[in-house]
Specification:
Elements (H helix, E strand, L loop, with lengths): L2 H8 L5 E5 L5 E6 L3 E6 L4 E7 L27 E2 L24 E7 L5 E8 L2 H6 L4 E9 L3 E9 L5 E3 L1 E3 L2 E3 L6 E4 L5 E4 L6 E4 L4 E2 L4 E6 L4 E6 L4 E8 L3 E6 L1 H7 L11 E8 L5 E3 L4 E11 L2
Antiparallel strand pairs: 1-2, 2-3, 3-4, 5-11, 6-7, 7-8, 8-9, 9-23, 10-22, 11-21, 12-21, 13-16, 13-18, 14-15, 14-17, 17-20, 18-19, 19-23, 20-21
């Protein structure tokens, strides 16, 4: 659909507009009394969320991000699906699945009675996806923009055989200074340490702080985590549903320099805290059944 057609069918006067974004990709721009946000239809990905009265975006978005078919956008809340991490079957398929680098469809938009805006985007299986992952599915993401940002990723099995998935909201949060940021809510959890290509199990004591490359899958986590961002004088509260694992990631200096879609010093300004079904947190979806992964982000002060 063209931008004009999208606005005619799905626009909400004064609150939700479709625009041509970077790379000419169609994007959804939301501006309300509660917040503003930017959503890329390519990848079905929230790129920006800024509550009213906040000086800074909640999300980090790379100035060097790719905006083209077949490429993932570095920043915001990419969707990893139907697997998290490397191809689980070792067939050479792309890491983190195949939905974060292709166009999605706009399913619905709605102005809710409480002043929030709800956007639903989705993907269904095609011959192309069947060649990559031979299952019939209907994937939807419900995005609710208000005082908090609420994301629900809903997997429906429309086929005749069960399948299993791992998945994630691979969310990039903006921090003022990574050396002064910490994550609370993971003390006492074991984690798989993936940094440097490893896979050793370790135990978290106290808050998570970052002073080197961090790539960890935390196991048996609770449903509330908090990023304490001292440099920006704010906390970002992350609440989840139907998730037993969480990932904390920061590339640090060398990997950031090696990534063409990151500025060399971006590692100092980003922190990924990801709501996941990863590692042994595998979800089975029966024919006609569904799986729902939910994450909510809110700025908390005082």
């Amino acid at each position: 659909m063209t931008i004009e057609q999208l606005n005619t069918q799905f626009g909400i006067a004064g609150q939700l507009e479709f625009i041509a974004g970077n790379g000419g990709l169609p994007m959804i721009q939301v501006k309300t009394a509660k917040a503003k946000a930017l959503i890329s239809i390519h990848a079905g990905q929230v790129l920006s969320y800024q509550p009213a009265g906040e000086a800074e975006d909640v999300m980090f978005l790379s100035a060097k991000a790719y905006y083209q078919d077949g490429k993932a956008i570095k920043g915001g809340a990419p969707i990893c699906w139907p697997w998290f991490g490397a191809d689980p079957e070792g067939k050479g398929r792309p890491g983190h699945g195949f939905v974060r680098n292709r166009a999605w469809n706009v399913i619905a938009t709605e102005a809710l009675a409480n002043g929030d805006i709800k956007v639903t985007v989705g993907l269904d299986d095609t011959p192309e996806t069947q060649a990559i992952w031979p299952h019939a599915f209907s994937l939807r993401q419900e995005i609710v923009i208000g005082d908090s940002l609420n994301l629900s990723l809903i997997t429906r099995n429309t086929g005749k055989e069960k399948f299993t998935i791992t998945q994630a909201f691979h969310t990039y949060f903006k921090v003022g200074d990574i050396s002064r940021a910490k994550v609370s809510g993971l003390a006492g959890c074991d984690y798989l340490d993936k940094a440097g290509g490893g896979n050793t199990q370790k135990h978290q004591t106290g808050d998570v702080t970052i002073d080197a490359e961090v790539d960890r899958i935390y196991l048996n986590v609770g449903n509330t985590l908090t990023i304490d961002d001292a440099a920006l004088n704010r906390c970002i509260q992350i609440t989840s549903q139907n998730s037993k694992t969480a990932v904390v990631w920061n590339p640090w200096e060398k990997i950031a320099k090696d990534m063409a879609d990151l500025e060399d010093h971006d590692y100092q300004r980003l922190l990924c805290v990801e709501t996941t079904n990863a590692a042994d947190d595998v979800r089975e979806v029966a024919p006609g059944g569904e799986c729902r992964l939910v994450a909510s982000y809110r700025v908390v002060r005082g």
